[in-house]
Amino acid sequence: MGLFVTGMIVGAAAAVAILGFMAVVAEDREMEERARKKRERDHKVLKDIEDWYMNCD
């Protein structure tokens, strides 16, 4: 009975560790996606400013 309880506790700890790792990976991917979108927005804003100055004559 003791081994069964110990096995359950170890299994639950492993499940929590795996889910925690998956959450960290998902958060990292989300942060990378946000950074990529921010770079794209910044590039578009810079391009708009450049276009505005080119057509300012």
**Strand coverage percent:** under 5%
Q: N-to-C terminal Cα separation, in Å?
A: 86 Å
Count of DSSP strands: 0
Shape type: rod-shaped
Order of helices and strands: H
The mean pLDDT is 95
Low-pLDDT residue intervals, each spanning 5 or more residues: none
Helix count?
Answer: 1
The assigned structural class equals mainly alpha
Q: Could you estimate the helical fraction of the residues in percent?
A: over 70%
Largest sheet: none
Computed CA radius of gyration, to the nearest angstrom? 25 Å
Characterization of the model:
This protein has 1 helix and no strands. The model has no long low-confidence stretch (mean pLDDT 95). It is mainly α and 57 residues long.
